[in-house]
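It would be a great kindness if you could assist me with a short task in structural biology. The matter concerns a single protein, recorded as an amino acid sequence and a row of backbone structure tokens. Kindly check, if you would, that the fold set down in the tokens agrees with what the sequence suggests. Thank you for your consideration; the sequence and its tokens are set out here:
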Amino acid sequence: MAQSVLVTGGAGYIGSHTVLQLLLGGYKPVLVDNLDNSSDIAIKRVQELAAEYGHNLSFHQVCCKFTSIAQYLRVIRLPSSIIMVDSSPHEATAMG
């Protein structure tokens, strides 16, 4: 039986590629993402690619904290929230 790996931020660029590698490695990735910096289009594409390899992909859109992650072999955190300082450093310094 494939071991489950929880991937937060799984809908992003790095997350979706990580998920595909996990599938190819024989793991069962479970994706969670709040889709703030991504879209369901990315999830649909990853699900299509997973299906080509005979895998079903589990995705959950969430915006809350996990209280129990004991059932997962590993947890891979790939958050991508961007604050103004990170996205526009010149604007941030001009603001004082």
Q: What stands out?
A: The chain has four helices and four strands. The radius of gyration is 16 Å.
